[in-house]
Structures are given as structure tokens and as C-alpha cells.
Amino acid sequence: MPFKKIIIDIEKQHGVSFNYTEDNIEGLELNPPKKSLSLEQKLEYLTKRTHLSFENIGNQFINIYKKENIQKIICGYILSAADKKPVENANISLLNKTQVTTDSEGYFEFNKEEKNTFVISHIGFVSKRITAGNTDYKNCLQITLEPEITELQEIKANAILASGISKNADGSLEIKPKKFGILPGLIEPDALQTMQQIPGVNSLDESVSSINVRGGTHDQNLFLWNGIRMFQTGHFFGLISVFNPNLAHTISIYKNGSSAFYGESVSSVVAISSTSQTAEKNSFSAGINMINADIYGKYNLSKKSYIEISARKSITDFLETPTYKEYFNKVFQNTTITDFSQNQNVDYQSDKKFGFYDATLKYAQKIGTKDQIVLDLITIKDNLEVFQSATVYNINTSENNVLRQQNYGGNLSWKRNWNNFNTTKINLYNSTYELLANQKTTYDNQIVIQENTVNNNGINLENHHIINSKFSFSDGYQFNEIGITNLEQVSNPDFYRKVKDVLKTHALILEGKYNDTISRIYLKAGMRINYLEKFKKYISEPRIQLGYGISKTVNLELLGELKSQNSQQIIDLQKDYFGIEKRRWIISNNTTIPIQKSRQVSLNLFYKKNDWLLDIENFYKKVTGITTSSQGFQNQLEFVRTTGDYEVWGTEMLIQKKINHFLTWLSYTYNENNYHFPDYEYPVFPNNFELTHTLSWAGIYEKNNFKIALGTKWSSGRPKTSPNVSQIDLSDPVLIYNRPNNTNLHIFSQVNISSTYKWETANGIQYKLGISILNILNRRNEISEYYRISSLTNSIEEVDTFSLQRTPNMSFRVSF
Q1: Which of 42, 220, 280, 292 has a CB 3.0–4.6 Å from the CB of 33, allowing a cystine?
Q2: In contact, 261 and 279? CB cutoff 8 Å
Q3: Partners of 643 in the beta sheet?
Q4: Do 426 and 444 form a contact (C-beta atoms < 8 A)?
Q5: What is the pairing mode between strands 766-774 and 807-815?
Q6: For position 70, what pLDDT does the model report?
Q7: Number of C-beta neighbours around residue 660 at 10 A
Q8: CA-CA distances (angstroms) from residue 567 to 195, 219, 268, 454, 640?
Q9: For the CA atoms of 575, 581, 586, 590, what is the dihedral angle to 10 degrees?
Q10: Beta-strand runs (E) in 290-336
């Protein structure tokens, strides 16, 4: 409206008089200030939007003068083309990189430059480039922005395998534990147990500490908890995940085509985040099952900060449940702990103590509207003490074993949203792992101490930039330092060895993403360049994820990656750490222990229509730089030290159908997996972790608060090496083997069931009861077999290891 009309209204509202000359305000028009503003705020508003200055005399008289030496400006109002309403917080970017934003009236201004070209952008609107001539306060630009129409990304499947599990556009599987339904044998959304239901993921010994993804070893997987690399993944020596299933918000699993921001793995990536993206109310829960008890709590300290804690501890200290007994028998079979009692007389005595715990702490604080700081801490510990004694021919023999395993870490992250299009995240992290074994024997008066420690720390910098609705890119830098110490100390005879290695790695990352939901094209390509200080070596790792929607129901996906890994786990002797945790971490030396490198490509066809789902993926993978000591050989290669590679190709298939409240699926995996050790007499033979055929089926029923799942898993036996009996002198036997992995174990077959029921009281307290039975049919499945010379009988002895027998479990949880 005319300026004169504006000041007349102000005179009436505030009881003041304006003094001015007509030529100073002639022809001046602008949007009036809000009536709710004070007199001072209105004068400030008018000063900013005109070429005038105002002198307030006692809140009675206001003199209006023309500003002297007025610098030429560009000003304007930005409106929505749809409803002509002002667009607040729109970004105006100048060629000199200066940025201004619009106020609540959609108004902006900046000093005139030689080139008056600027870009206007705002989420939800199409960006606009403007070249303006000279303007003044009387002739501010009127600019309209067109709304941006974005088609929402098609959801490929509401549920894969179970509710709460979905597939992302980049080929990864995402698990939302708080929305998780149920799977056979599982009553809690355990990340590492759940991923074993995915085609291509197995654990040959039923352990979450030995997960094999497409023929790889467990240490070739990267496990991240809130950005912290975890070197211990299992409690109870692998039968329980160390990640509290009631804590995580999102679990992302990549079998191939992982982001360039993930390094240090040649197999899969499992990234667990407990940070919620949206505000949540205060909550508390506590639960107990037949192995452990836990608590969880989240408390909002303010509107911008909260604290979250969780803790879990075994109940085996004071109660030995049937579940614990089955777990114990499974873990300690064919180890020094059980061998000690064999072939002894009735005076054998044993006392064992076992326990574990884990705890986490999170503190999150928002600062203003653009910054957030998050602190994460985690601690994990397992402790085993076993004392055994026996009297043989009036001679007392005893053995005292102590085995401790722990991992703790911390991550401090800072995230800043510079604007709607640019974000920066920096995080500092540390992860420390320790495995300590102490064994004392009275028979030969010997003490054996073994220790393996890992200290990993670093810094990550990530920048994310949105160019438009279809294209974005990210860049970053990562520094990682890992130090690993291995100690061995023996008394009688005296022996001491301590080796420490440190490796520093720098990485530069660039990654771009193009996502056109209308033409159904998704492309994400990245490059990671690693520099290893110690070896003065560069390693390039390109990654790609390409998806094309052939139709609304059929999607074709191509994934590929090159990755490398500088640390690995090896086994020096199968009896190390009492035969339980035999693996110890070491760092590559670029010679006898090479840097492991992998290359992988896969082609996936995904079909979904009318609650039918079909997912077929063909893949090829090759990993170089492996050592025989990292593969767990228990044949003629146990004491051979050589390097080579493994090559695997195969097909993974999942077919799924949902009928009302019932979901059923069938998965099949075929693998052809071979070692290549060029310096060995048998250069090519089957991989220890090859499962040629794997078949799984599940039927799941979910209605209201009741859930039940029944499923079975069948797989061909893993490879084994048989002795060459024809060449062995049975009077003085020495093991002579046939060709490595010349035959296979018997077929593995298991049927599992689980069920949960949840109810809620009138005051909002929720209760959940769960029951599961593993191996319902109590089938005696052989999971490993090797041979040794018995010192008692001087004969060849076959040693078999079996899977869990029928194992029940029950859980109860309360939440509010």
C-alpha cells in the first residue's frame, strides 16, 4: 500500500505525528508492517525496506529524512505461484557466493553488484535463476516460484521375510527392530540372527561370531554400531549377539554395492544405528529370558536433548536354565574343558563360572536449529572361569582356565545443516578389544598366558549436497589408526613373545546419486581412495548401484564394488584359547600377510505384484590375499602357511506370498566356491565355507497382538577332508590325508518355531510374552568333523561337533 497510508495508520495506533516532505515519500509503496509490532519494531521495519531514516522524539514526533549516500540495491518479494503467499526462508545465492534468505513477508535485499544474477531455491519449489537490472525500494521485484512436483519413491515391498524388514533402492536390506514381526526360532529382533535368514548369509556353526556371507569368513564383514567398529559380535562365544535387540532403530545390511563411505571389509557391511530421526517420548522397558535380563530407558532432558541407556546381563551366575545347559554343551564340546573329564576316574571334579554383560549410553543435544551433537558409549564383556581336578593313580591333576573377552568404544559426532541443501557431519571414534586367556596346570606345573588386543580410532568427515530433486552428491575424508598386540607367555619351559603392529590409513571419498522416480532410474556411484602410510600405497575402490524399473512391478538392479581390508583374524593352533575363541586379530604386513582385496558384481531381478514377491540375484565374487591360517583348516593345511584367494559364484532366490495375516516364503541359494593356493600341491579345491545348496522355508501368521512362525532350514553338508586309510600304518599311526575337502558332511536339517503375544493395560503399560524352540525334532546335525591321534589309545580318532539339540527359550517384557 502507499507509504503515506502506512504512516497514517501508525499515527492512529500509537498516537504519534510524522514530519516529512512530500517529495521524500512520493510514489513509495510497500507491504505494511504487522499491527502487532511495537512502534520501534515498525520503524525498524520501514528503515530496512525504504531509503528513509526515522528520528523518534519522545515517542511523540517522528522526523523522516532521506538517507544519504544510498547504496544501490536489489530487492524483491518471493511468492508462491500456487497461492501467491510469501515464501519464507528461501535461499538467494549470488555469483560471489553471498547468500541471503527471505523473511516472513518473502522480502529480500542485497547490495547491487556489477552482475546481478542470482539463484532462488527452496525445498518444494523449482529453483529459479534471475538476472535483474537496477531496482530501488519503490520498484522491488515480484518473483513467483513454481511448486515442485515430486513422485514419491515406490515402495518395493512392505515386508521381506518378516514385517519390519524392507529392501532399499541401493540394494541393501533395512531392519526396523521396533516394527519387527517374528521369524522362526526368534522372539527378539536380534540383528545378527535375523540376517542369517537372508539368502546368501549363513553360519556353519550356528554362531553369530562366525557369519559367512557369500563364502567369506566372519572377520571379512564390517560391523558398525553408531559408527564404532566392533571386533566382538557375540556373547556366550557366539550364540547371542552383543547388540541389544531392544535398542536399535535401524539396521542396514549390504551384501554388495555398499557406499564408498564404508571401508575395511571385503564381504558384507552391517551398520546399526540407535539414533532416532524423529522426536520420541520418554520410555522405559525391562525384560528377561532364559539367558539374560535387560533394561532400557530414554528420557527427554529438554525439547532439544535426551539421554538413552541400556544394560543387559546374563542370569547364569545364579541360575542354570535348560537353555543355558544346551548352549554350554554346544560351545564347549571337544575343547580342553570337556576333554579333561574324559577317560578319568570317578574322582573328577569341576567348577565353572560364566557371565556376560553389555551396556550403552547415548546423549543427544540439539543446538539452535542447525546443529546437533551426539555421544555414544558401549561396553561389552564375557568372562569364563573353569577349575577342574582329577585323581589318577593317586596323583592329583588340576587345571584352572580363565578366559575374558571385552570390547568397548565411543563415538562423538557433530552434525550441522548449513541450509536445506548442505549438511556436514564429523565424528571421532574409538574401539578397544581385548581377548585374554590364562591357563594353569598342575600336571606339568605350567602357566600359559595369551592376549590379543586391538585399539582402533579415527575421524570421519562427511559433506552432503543436494543439487536438485534428482541429483545429490557427497564427499568426505576418513582417517583410521589401528594397533594390534599379540602376546604369548609360557612358564616351564619359559617362553615370551609380544608383537605389536600399527597401521594408519587415509581415505578420500566422492559419491553421487541420481534418482529419477518418474523414469524409474536409480544410480549411485562412488569412489574411495585409500592411502596406507606404512606401505606408501594407494588403493582405489569404485562402487556402483544401478536400478532400473522395467515396469511398475519389475525392477532390474546391478551392483558392483571393489573393496580392501587391512586386518584379519587368524588361527595359529586349534587349541588356542581352550579351543573356544581361537581367532586372533592381526594386521597385514603386505608380504606374508597380504592386504585382502575383493571384487564383486551381482545382477538382481525383483518382481512384486498382488502380494507376490520374487527376488533372484546372480553374483560373482573374488577375494585375494587370504592366508591358510585365516580359514580354520583342521586337516593337512592346519600348519601350512601360504596365501591365495577364493572365488565364488552363485544364485540366490526368494519367493514370497502374503495372504491377509499369513506370510510364507521359500528361499534357495546355490554356491560354487573354490580356493586357489598356487604354491600348494593341490592349488584348487572347495572352500571350507561352501554350502552348495541351501533351502529355507517359513510360514508366519500375525494378527493383532499374536504372532507365530514355523520354519525349516536345509543345507548340503560343508566340505571335510578324510584320512587316506590305505597309507596309514595302524601300529604306529601318522595322519595322512586325501585331497583337501574331498568329501562333505551329512545334510543339515532343522525345524524351529516361535510365538509372541502382546497386551496393554488401561494405564498404557505393555506386556510381551515370547516362546521359541530351536531344533524341535531334536535332530543331531553334524557341523564339523576332523581327525587326531589319541594319546590314550594310539589310534586315529574321529572328532565330531554337533549343532544345538532341542533348545527352548522364553522371554517376558514390560514397557511403558
Answers
A1: 42
A2: no
A3: 627
A4: no
A5: antiparallel
A6: 57
A7: 9
A8: 23, 8, 15, 10, 20
A9: 70
A10: 292-302, 305-314
Other C-beta atoms within 10 Å of 176: how many? 15
Residues 6+ away with beta carbon under 8 Å from 349? 388, 389, 390
**What angle is formed at CA 287 by the lines to CA 282 and CA 290, rounded to 5 degrees?**
165
> 516-529: per-residue pLDDT in tens?
988 899 999 999 99
Q: Which of 240, 212, 185 is nearest to 783 (CA)?
A: 212
* Distance, CA of 195 to CA of 218 (rounded, Å): 13
Q: Which amino acid is at 370?
A: K
Strands (E), 147-211: 159-160, 162-163, 165-167, 173-175, 201-202
Cα–Cα distance list, 692 to 267, 653, 682, 688, 784 (Å): 18, 14, 21, 11, 16
* 515: DSSP letter: E
Whole-number pLDDT of residue 150: 56
- 3-state secondary structure (DSSP) of residue 108: strand
Task: Return the DSSP state at 723.
Answer: B
Q: List pLDDT tens digits, range 118-134.
A: 889 888 888 888 887 76
Query: What's the pLDDT score for residue 319?
Result: 87
Cell numbers found for residue 6 = 502506512
Q: By the 8 A CB rule, do 404 and 380 touch?
A: no
Note whether 447 and 437 are within 8 A (CB).
no
* pLDDT for position 679: 95
CA-closest candidate to residue 428, choices 502, 479, 359? 479
For 109-160, the DSSP string reads: EEE--SS-EEEEE-TTB--EEEE---B-TTS-EEEEEPBP--PPPPPS-SEE
Give the separation between CA 388 and CA 395, rounded to whole angstroms: 14
State residue 736's pLDDT score.
Answer: 92
Residues 263-281: tens digit of each pLDDT:
999 999 999 998 887 678 8
Q: β-strands 222-225, 269-273: how paired?
A: parallel
Given the DSSP bridges, would you call strands 612-627 and 662-676 parallel, antiparallel or unpaired? unpaired
Which residues, listed in sequence order, are joined to residue 700 by a DSSP beta bridge? 663, 709
Residue 152: its pLDDT value, please?
Answer: 46
pLDDT value at position 155? Answer: 42
Place of cell 494378527: 703
- In order, the DSSP letters of 743-788 are EEPPPEEEEEEEEEEEEE-TTS-EEEEEEEEESTT----EEEEEEE
Q: Which residue ranges in the chain fall short of pLDDT 70?
A: 68-71, 114-115, 134-138, 149-158, 278, 336-348, 392-393, 443, 791-792
Longest dimension (CA), the chain: 124
The phi-psi region of residue 704 (left if phi > 0; otherwise alpha if psi is between -120 and 50; otherwise beta) is left
* Beta strands 73-80; 165-167: pairing state: unpaired
Question: Would you say 626 and 212 are in contact if contact means Cβ atoms under 8 Å apart?
Answer: no
What contacts 434, CB < 8 A, 6 or more positions away?
A: 404, 405, 406, 407, 451, 452, 453, 454
Is the peptide bond between 686 and the residue preceding it cis, with omega within 30 degrees of 0?
no
Tell me the CA distances in angstroms from 807 to 206, 679, 713, 770, one per residue in order.
13, 45, 16, 14
pLDDT (0 to 100) of residue 744: 95
